[in-house]
Amino acid sequence: MAKFLIRRLVPVILTALCLTFLVFWLTNLPPNLEKIAKSEAGVRISDSEVASWLDRNGYSRPVLLRYGEWLGVAPGWRATDETGTERGRCLTARVDPAGAPRFCGVLQGWWGWSNVFKQPVSNIIALRLGLTGWLMMSVMALMVPVALLIGVLAGMREGSKLDRTLSTASIVTTATPEYVSGVVFIAIFASSMTGLKWFKGSATSAMDHITFENFFLPVLTIALYGIGYIARMTRASMAEVMTAQYIRTALLKGASFRQVVLRHALRNALIAPFTVIMLQFPWLLNGVVIVETLFNYKGFGWTLVEAAGNNDIELLLGCSVVAVVVVLVTQLISDIGYAWLNPRIRLS
């Protein structure tokens, strides 16, 4: 298992470096840097003034060197302007220039300064990621058990009336976008028009204090979309396992249908759905922007859109790092879980 982990861990690290460098290069293209200069120094400054501002603030140096500084493996730049004031990347992390560190990048915990929110990027991401984390865990707690139950029940008896009913319901939920189901839920359960004002149509208050009333509708909106997808995958996997020879042998030996399903079929049927379930975490992290906007819940997805829309490079890079890490870590956990569920992968 140790060799298996090492073989998986090395590509994960290399992939993270390549993806973060690609994002860094794309966000630091000359047009984006010009927008930053004009937003900080004035929209009417000339091209020469733009070049001068970029040079004073360390943006004119090679991209690879700046990536190393941002990552924290190269010393942060320092310069003294015409007034004798010392400037530099690490000086923004420490007030006292004498006590400023040489290295101040992501590896040292300094993620930069947000030009839009005017505070450290790490503080913004920690707050917004925590809000989205509560949303993700609540969605998974509702989505996974319901989807697995529907998929297993449908796949146990392929072609039956129960299978057709559950499969149709799964297709309908997957085909319904979140913004449609969210609006429908708000109109039915959070509007005075129907008289069923059981929940709040806005989740803004959930950012301070989560209750069933202000948090259930966004959770249900997201979970309903994912339930159908996972249920369909589980159903297909379960139906395939139920036709295997060892299942027929167990039934012929006199084992009850319930024992065959729980002891033999279920574990093998969960291999493919497990991978799908782990892939829901990156989707929940970045793909719930519409739901967060619809219910006015300012989580990680909302922050990512704000950073991209306002050309906040440091915040956009921080969000990208988190997204890359979540994707790669969940993929690694998926590989480990896949090997645990299927011993043939470990032996190979």
Can you characterise this structure?
It is a single chain. By secondary structure, the protein is mainly alpha-helical. The protein has two domains: 2-108, no CATH class; 122-309, MetI-like fold (Orthogonal Bundle). The protein has 16 helices and two strands. Helix 7 (178-189) packs across helix 8 and helix 8 (212-242) packs antiparallel against helix 11 (271-278). The termini are close together.
What layout of secondary structure does this protein have?
Layout: H1 2-27, H2 30-41, H3 47-56, H4 63-71, E1 78-80, E2 86-88, H5 121-156, H6 161-175, H7 178-189, H8 212-242, H9 245-252, H10 257-269, H11 271-278, H12 280-286, H13 289-294, H14 300-309, H15 313-341, H16 343-347
Summarize the structure.
The chain is built from 16 helices and 2 strands. It has about 350 residues and is an all-alpha fold.
Q: What is the H/E order?
A: HHHHEEHHHHHHHHHHHH
* Cα radius of gyration in angstroms: 26 Å
CATH third-level topology of the largest domain: MetI-like fold
Which geometry do the CA atoms define?
globular
- Count of individual domains: 2
